[in-house]
Amino acid sequence: MQARPIPSQWIDCVLGILETHDPSKIEWTLTAEINWQQFGIEQDAYGLLTKVLRAPEVLGHQVVGMRDRRWHLH
Length: 74
Prior knowledge:
Layout: E1 4-5, H1 8-18, H2 30-36, H3 42-54, E2 59-60
Antiparallel strand pairs: 1-2
């Protein structure tokens, strides 16, 4: 899978969630837990992720199968 620019709409949504620092709103994939574990506890990762997502033209990989829980509320 090739890294591609992350859509700004997705970044804005995720930044809003990360900035709440509410672990009940954040679901970590196993890969993310392994990759970010080196930076400390989850709360530390929120600030680092926020900084990374604010970088211009940030690239990422799509997480296949991840759904927004709000879709199931309608």
